[in-house]
Amino acid sequence: MNNDWTQHPHFAALDWASDHHDVLVLDRAGAIVAELRFAHTAAGWAEFSAQMQPFGPCPLTLETSSGPAVDQLLQRGYPLYPLAPQAAQAYRSRKAPSGTKTDRHDTWSMADALRTDGHAWRPLHPQDEATATLRALCRDEIGLIQQRTLLVNQLQAALREYYPAALAAFDDWTQPFTWAWVQQFPTPQMLQSAGPRKWEKFLHTHKLWRPETREERLALFAAATALPTSPAMVSAKRLLAVSLAKLLTTLQAQFDEYRRQIEAAFRAHPDHDVFGYLPGAKEVLGPRLLAEIGSVRAEYPDADALMCQAGVSPVSYQSGKVERCRLRRACNKVLRFTVHLWADGSRKTCPWAQAYYAQKRAEGQGHASALRCLGKRWLKILWRLWQDHQRYDETHHIQSLERRGSISWQARAVKVARPV
After folding, report:
1. Do residues 78 and 60 lie in contact, with contact meaning Cβ atoms separated by under 8 Å?
2. Which of 400, 407, 374 is nearest to 307 (CA)?
3. Are 370 and 353 in contact (CB under 8 A)?
4. pLDDT below 70 — which residues of the chain?
């Protein structure tokens, strides 16, 4: 909490858009002292700097914590206090219960909320260049993964129309060899014409010739034309399937380049050792955890703040005799998803993590709920390591669990002692 909040002479809000922005400035008493609309251009930002010069780098709020407007404001030294869209809507309703909505009213309601309530808001801490670069790379990589998922779904839908044997032969269509298959054998008829020798050569080339699957796959290839599709459908869908396979192949090349740059940026980051030795994270999820948590320790003064931002701490609801908890949705969605994957992956390498997860499942919690509980445990550990600039030590943690008589240790000890 900022105890010197009332000492600020001015408070500002920016209502951003893709091509222009609206700014409104209030004084300490709440009177409007300046209003400005400017274009998102070099000249527009120069005008903004000139018009805002009399007020100095006053506290400023806006409805986002990232993007080009935030980048420009941080470069100009403004202390930013991002406002969640739901909170901004609530402040608008408080100022205009009738439902009136204009850009000017939105900007004014946010500026006045900053003036009256901003002392309790969390400021946006700018990250260093290494962390900002890693965050941008990781978020863009996630975008590429989502794009790949979209294209894979479209490819599977196209194959389902005319080539079900291909879908039955391969399970994971995010693998490049499946796209190579579609390009080499785009129709059931062309697959039949190629013959068994070329089928076997493809399987050998892509290291798919395995005793447990080869006979089943060869049988599927041989029966690919058992239920023929109309020539018109085959002709149209073949072109779509091959086009999607080529797009996926090109996208994979860029995806691999992103992965190389992310790994290089992660290895060069000062906090690499803190995140690079976490069980279940390592070189894949470690960079995402570091990118989302950042390197500014003041961002999360305690572990609870980090757990809330990651969405693993529930939200309580109490009214009269009704008391219940629900999933926290106001959080960093990327961090929440990454922690979910990390907690799930840690069960494969950490006996205590698997024991804790199994204990929560035995208590009646579902898979996702048990992983959130495990994620809370991990984030408590990570926050301490992050604050102390230390790497994770499994032996030290197991000894700590044993000393405290933790449920995780007791469940693990029972599992180890149980005769095979």
Report:
1. yes
2. 374
3. no
4. 1-3, 407-420
Q: Are strands 10-16 and 60-62 parallel, antiparallel or unpaired?
A: parallel
Closest-CA residue to 285 (of 336, 323, 326, 221): 336
Q: What is the CA radius of gyration of the chain?
A: 28
317, containing H or E segment: strand 315-319
| d(C-alpha 369, C-alpha 266), whole Å | 30
Check residue 398 and give its pLDDT: 87
Helix, strand, or coil (residue 129): helix
**Residue 289 neighbours by CB distance under 10 Å:** 25
CA dihedral of residues 283, 286, 287, 289 (deg, nearest 10): 170
pLDDT of residue 409: 53
The pLDDT assigned to 416 comes to 44
Residue 349 is classified by DSSP as T
Query: Angle at CA 46, nearest 5°, toward 19 and 137?
Result: 60
Nearest-CA neighbor of 284 among 342, 236, 205, 337?
342
196-205 and 176-184 helices, crossing angle to 10°:
150
Q: Which of 68, 78, 108 is nearest to 91 (CA)?
A: 108
Contact between 69 and 20 under an 8 Å Cβ cutoff? The reply is: no
Distance CA 1, CA 130 (A): 28
pLDDT tens-digit series, residues 292-314: 999 999 999 999 999 999 999 99
Residues 6+ apart with CB under 8 A from 394: 279, 350
pLDDT tens for 93-122 read 888 888 788 889 999 999 999 999 999 999
Dist CA 7 CA 368 (whole Å): 46
- How many CB atoms sit inside 10 A of residue 111's CB? 27
Query: How do 80-82 and 60-62 pair as beta strands?
Result: parallel
